[in-house]
Batch of 2 targets.
Target 1
Amino acid sequence: MKLEAHNLTKAYHMHEVVNIEKVTFGAGGLEGLIGPNGAGKSTLMGLLTRRIAPTSGTIKLDVGSGEKTLNPLKSHEVARIGLIKTNQRIQGFDSLSIRDSLRLAATPPQDEGLMSLFSRKRDSNEIEEKVARLVEAFPFADRNGYAMSGGEKKLLDILRCLIKEPKLFLMDEPTAGLPEDITRLVMDMVREKVQAGRMRVVVVEHDLPLIWEYCDFVHFLSEGSILFEGKPEEVKANRVVAEKYMGV
Amino acid sequence: MDYLIFSLSLMFVYIGLAQLLHIQFGMAGIPNFGVVGFWGIGLYGTGVLYVNYGVPLLPAIVVASVLSMVIGYIMALLVLQRSGQAILAATLALAAVIATLVVSEKELTGGVQGLGTIKFPFDGVDSRNLIFMLFILAVVLALIWLSSRLRDSRMGRQLVAIRDNEELAASLGKDTAATKRLVFAITCGFMGVLGGMSAPLHQFLVPYQLAPSLTFAVWIALVLGGKGHNLGAMIGVFVTFGLFDILIETYAPVPAEQAILLPNFKLFCYGVLLVMIIMFRPKGILGEDKPRVADAAAGKG
């Protein structure tokens, strides 16, 4: 699944935060999106998942069977196509346990209608297995309880998205708030899925070593525009990136 | 005896309304302050059809309830995606509009002169009021059962997720707006059913019955009992309406000169109880209950 944005802009009070002529995500396996603070990374992610309405421009999604324009879609419709984004800030459902939260995410929308009031079993074995596999793979303090620490909530946020098996998965700063060993567990799992051809990923990160290690392709965003794109080595060696971002 | 049956019937109607509010507010987080409006559409809809057009009682209740559901759906379309305060104000306003329409549309509703008489069904049967009370009880028990099913179902889990964090639920592919509309419309429809069933209880309908005090009574009962508990509505109505309106007002041996103070004393007690609950047990007498689902994974560590 490929995502293409053309002439995409977003302005708040005449101040342009994002102004991108053309960018393509989902072409290169595991992609990174880097850039200094205030470069517009999170705004761009919000635009791509329709959480933020663009000021102008189009976003097109190539879903294999043809192109789809994202602009008229609502947030939940974007998610149903298979484009899912994790949250930078901690988000969660306070009343749902870790397992319930994952079950909720794994349940397809057509199974959540009124008829579900009369089904004897709440979740199918298939969903229970999926949930168990994910919960067991990570060291939650209480696997049958609630996500307690900020780290657990952040992890749960990522797992909630993963269990939906997105086609294009956007990760907004997965390392923020997560211990390093957990980040590696997550990223290894993500890389495995990418290599198996089950999804494409875009990671927004400040943790450059992680980007260089995991990413196959990197976009460099600065002051709202894509300034450079390439393989990690090319980006590392690029003078513009070095000047604008790495402070060399 | 007849008075006790009337009071108990009315109490069951209150429990039903509080139960529906538990679904709307406790589960889905929609602050509906227009309970009396949807109940009133059912009440007056049934009355107008029965008295003016000679429609038999049960079909009249069905038609009036459908009307209540449709108006609930239109309200949902208009305001449900706004903030909580907006929903609160809009539903309160709707109830006021309904009450005003009942006063102004004299040809249909009889205006302030009232509309009547609406008789109990089952003509010619003895103790029809008792049978009708059991009928109301059956409907209310069905509502309690349905809402426990909702609590334990996938749809209920989705509602809780929407209440907790709607934007997050939408980002996981849940059509939060449509789900809320559906739940709101259906529960408003049932409020209409309870209104329709209240018509033969009151027999004679006057606009005063559409005062917002009904909404507040139901809200107080729900908050006291526990908005997040399936039986909170019932317990809340027992300790408010059941205790004061039925037990004390009817059966307590209060001297006549003091009895006149009872309604004020009741309001005073409601207030004290409400403040105490909010201070010491903010989740209500019963607190919250969790879905009862056979959890295959819970046993394992």
Target 2
Amino acid sequence: MRSIKSATPKQTLFPRLAIAFRLAGFVLLLSGHASWAQYVPIVSGAVGFLDSTNTGVNFFQPVVAPVVVAPLGKHFLAESRFDLRGFYAPKNGNSGPYEGTFIGSTQYLQLDYFATDKLTVTGGRFLTPFGTYNERLTAIWIQKLQDAPLIFPIGTRTTGSSDGGMIRGSLVATPTIHINYIGYFSASSTAAQFQAGRATGYRFDAYFPGKRVEIGTSYARFLQGTHNNSSGAHFWWQPWRFPLEVRSEYAHGAHAQGYWIESAYRLSQWKGPDSIFGRLEPVFRMQQTFRDSPGPGDGLPAANTNQVDFGLDYHLPHEVRLNTSYSRKLTSTGNANIWDFSLTYRFLFPMWRGHS
Amino acid sequence: MKNVRSAWKYSTLPLAVLSLGSLLTWAQASSSPQDAKQTSPASAQHAVAATTNPGERAFRANCGRCHNPPEQLSPRIAGTVLRHMRERALLSPQEERDILKYLAP
């Protein structure tokens, strides 16, 4: 849904630069080490059909989200993800024929340089590393619930992607603890496919592999227009002994704050993950946002909002997944029911044959 | 403050459901027999016992936290996938090597 926020870009020099940048990216991709036995460039990603009914209004989106990854020698990696989707909704609000628009966005197109064991330098367009949802869970073949959390816009404005540079790595990586860091800056851009806000920020987290527990904190400073700060914290727990996943985030923005907690439990302990019941995964998420002051255009609910989401996902064979969910939104401006349904197919194949 | 109190009132039921679900999960896991050995990456995601394979453990501790492993992974692209995951999941070079050995022995 992030790409829907994109505004019509101004006609500037940037579109030409964008084209040149893309061409350069593809040249880099095609110049990869094809003969390196295990390092053939890949095309991955997913195709999907997303349907949603929100407050009685139905809309659907066919989506293709390809990921291209190409190692360039031992120290460089070029990678990109695009999101191409149609958005079809009733022409007259909640009735009449459907009318569609095409939306395409470049979510990341970056070059990574593995400088040392503890430092990776990234340049280009990358997913803004605020919290965990944007970087880890926005891919349609990963997300367990179709809709992003209500607090998603905090720290990721304006598009969820940044144009600039990023450093990241693990300061400590032992079997008992990982201490990870990310720092970034982003320039302002209105170029088509490369829209981003001027911002800077960081994320720190501590991960305990023995417990599969992660805690972390994020910060972002928006340096465009009215400068403001966003901060956040996250907690993940995925016990080793059973297939439960608990994820949560809290974020505080200039005009609002909120949190979400999501739990998912794959029923794989009932006759294995490939059994009829073992493919089921109930999901539950609760979230609240609190409006501190009016913030038009910040992407957050205009009034305090409480929402619960009940999902039931089914992992079909051959990388096909069926996600369904019902959400109840409670707010002073009007309650709403949201029904979501999506079918996705995840693909992964080499860009060319390579050597066996 | 009134709004906050109201919001917490709304959240009482979901919190209760979440807590109950966690308790049931814990109870089920405690009473379920544990399968010790799983070999394929796809099923390893759902293994319930601790593994001694460092690659499998590193996979489940890092990549498996966000997504299921691919059902099939050609050895020709295993290195590329792992290089991608090194950047995404902040894998150490040792973890990258261990997982590569596990996925494409």
